[in-house]
Prior knowledge:
By secondary structure, the protein is mainly beta. The protein has helices at 113-117, 143-147, 228-236, 304-307; strands at residues 3-9, 16-22, 27-34, 40-42, 67-77, 83-95, 98-111, 123-126, 155-161, 164-170, 183-186, 195-196, 200-203, 209-210, 215-217, 224-226, 242-244, 249-253, 261-265, 268-272, 278-281, 286-289, 291-293, 300-302, 310-315, 320-325. The strands form 4 sheets. It has a 6-stranded mixed beta barrel with strand order 2-3-8-4-7-6. The chain has a 5-stranded mixed beta sheet with strand order 12-15-24-16-23. Strand 6 (83-95) and strand 7 (98-111) form a beta hairpin. The chain is globular, with a radius of gyration of 20 Å. The mean pLDDT is 98.
Amino acid sequence: NFGTVETIPEAFDREYLSPVQIGTPPQTVNLNFDTGSADLWVNTNETPENQQNGQVEYNPTLSSTAKKMEGATWDITYGDGSASSGIVYTDVVSIGGVTVQSQAVESAQQVSSSFQADAASSGLLGLAYGTINTVQPVQQKTFFENAMNDLASPLFTVNLMKQAAGSYDFGYINASEYTGEIQYTPVDNSRGFWGFNPSGFQVGNSSFNASSWYAIADTGTSLLLLPSGMVDIYWSAVSGAKFDALQGGYTFPCNTTLPSFTFGVEEYRGVIPGHFMNYAAITKTTCFGGIQSSDALGFSIFGDVALKAQFVVFDGGDNTLGWANK
Ligand SMILES: CC[C@H](C)[C@H](NC(=O)[C@H](C)NC(=O)[C@@H](CCSC)NC[C@@H](N)Cc1ccccc1)C(=O)O
């Protein structure tokens, strides 16, 4: 079978939320689909009230198909320092008409401050490889891994949009969502991520700089995080841009016209329009850049700033990533 679900951007395209049905009768919660992690966790009746800010909860006691996974716990930390932990149930989970009868649903008994403050998001739905799922003592599979064998094709596609509704499609490729040909490239999943090797980059209409490095496709990261050498070259083309240690990255005058950023995947060239690199205004006149350094992380992240300019196929059958402009 196959299905599609819309995904809605929060302010600044900081994150994208999609409705997910859990339990019987179905309880709908909006989750942050995250190809950079592999835990499906959600605010529940077990999440302390003082760690919530109005989030919609999943309540397993109201679901006739919920089963507690005795003795199971989870505990996750993210690259931005946020974290959450708790216990585990299995229940029916449906996304856009694709149903998994027994999905590990991780109930949050502790969430860190950035999650507490994010009232619109009830949790995360991991779409990375289950090898980095944090449930103990028995590691659990992701929704996609559990659904994959029943899908028409063992893949899902990601079509994020700038300040507009996009979609996650499961089991099929919708040709109306992209232009040109899809460029497939092998995935390095040795760290549990959808890792790949970009082949270079280009700022505006300048020449293409061939280079090969490791990056991950991560819908749960807002920005495009690249080696500082590339980031410095990009911002050196923007008059008034400067590295602002207080803000933790490059800022620039908001009224500047920004150059596009093109990345290579083998022979393919993915183009990110210049205005996508304006992440958010810090003051009336100073804006924060959407391209920032990944040096502190140790690897590059193609987050939403890049992904919202592309149609991306995550193929779990042959472990490839497919890229197309749109
Ligand atoms: C510091 C933690 C390191 C990065 C590592 N954790 C990870 O790699 C986790 C699974 N993935 C992540 O932290 C990153 C990918 C690697 S970044 C170093 N993606 C998921 C993240 N953006 C999800 C998120 C969404 C909204 C708000 C906050 C966080 C670990 O547990 O060792």
